[in-house]
Amino acid sequence: MADPKGFLTHERETAKTRPVEERVQDWNEVYQPGSLLPIISKQASRCMDCGIPFCHNGCPLGNLIPEWNDYAYRGDWTEASERLHATNNFPEFTGRLCPAPCEAACVLGINQQPVTIKNVEVSIIDKAWDNGDVTPQPPERLSGKTVAVIGSGPAGLAAAQQLTRAGHTVAVYERADRIGGLLRYGIPEFKMEKRHINRRIEQMRAEGTKFRTEVEIGRDIDAAKLRKRYDAVVIAAGATTSRDLPVPGRELKGIHFAMEYLPLANKVQEGDLTVAPITAEGKHVVVIGGGDTGADCVGTAHRQGAASVTQLEIMPRPGEERNAVTQPWPTFPMLYKVTSAHEEGGERVYSVSTTHFEGDEDGNVKALHLIEVEFKDGKLEQKPGTERVIPADLVTLAMGFTGTDQQNGLVEQFGLELDARGNVGRDADFATNVPGVFVAGDAGRGQSLIVWAIAEGRSAARGVDRFLTGASALPAPIKPTDRALAV
What we know:
19 helices, 16 strands, FAD/NAD-bd_sf, globular, 5-stranded parallel β-sheet
């Protein structure tokens, strides 16, 4: 145990962010560089080293949190990194992007503020990179088996790294021009600078993983032909079909899916574009959807110089504290969250629904009509007399995703069976109905968190390894049927 009295003598303290007026002028990460390390030993000491650490259950990766908290407290960064990497291929991603269900399950959180697990995690991995503790781990021998991984998001990368280290020859196919999936083009630079992805890709290349960009399976390469070329295939193409809003005026110019808007801003940061073709500069921006993707749109609009930013959410505003009856510990509670993007300004409106969009004479959106809604007898009903109009020159739809892409031919060409929710079906080994074809991440689970994606990639890799060799020593932290802790 780090410090038996740590949780009694130290209050929770998190990473400091840069001043709003400074950070909205650039696209760098919002946190003050170096602000964590001076406080992280005390924060790690708050870990109670519980007899039954529920943080293990809150995290689908099964991260060994009390162990690396202890090492961080003692300043043994090398051992802390070893424990961290034992369960997580990419802790610098999760330490920046995960909403931390582990903290919601922290035993200390029953009657105090939980341990800053996420901050300790990112401190360990950043220190590991600085110290040179993150090195390539090429396999001792090759199996002679080949694997194609379709998609280079966190699930695909995790599966690829595990299978490469097991000795298989792995090629990752990505339809975009750079590796990373939504990590690359869906996550803004101010949440995670892309240098973190780049150095992981170089590590994987040094281990032997091959990467093929600008190749879309189903369009550029027939899926059935790809299956014949490789001994096994892992589909990790994500759930990229955005949920639409079929209301009058949807066809107006200036209304875009979030995943049409956000990648262009990232393209500017990559140096591919001087100015984003879709920009919020000088415009009244409306973001429909109250989740993390919506917050990403809000922060991007601020940096592009929007005249105003309004975020709409159809659900009521969540409470600021856990409801012990409806969201008991150790489940992940839905709480009112103020992200760094929300700190930067804009208005958040809850319990409203869009009725229609209004356009100008040139077919551009100029206003959004909404109405207040409420739940009655379990149904969402409009409240008469609450209609109003807000200006809208740019509208982004950030209402989530409905499943994997079925338009590019991948599903049809492989002959894959889908489940009732439109996800690719799989068995206990993450295998689809097509022999030798496996699925991991959102393509099989549906829209989920980054920790679930990495856990899926690691688990699917074990299924592939068993298929290719008859046995596997690779870890499998979850089963396809596993779900987050819930009431």
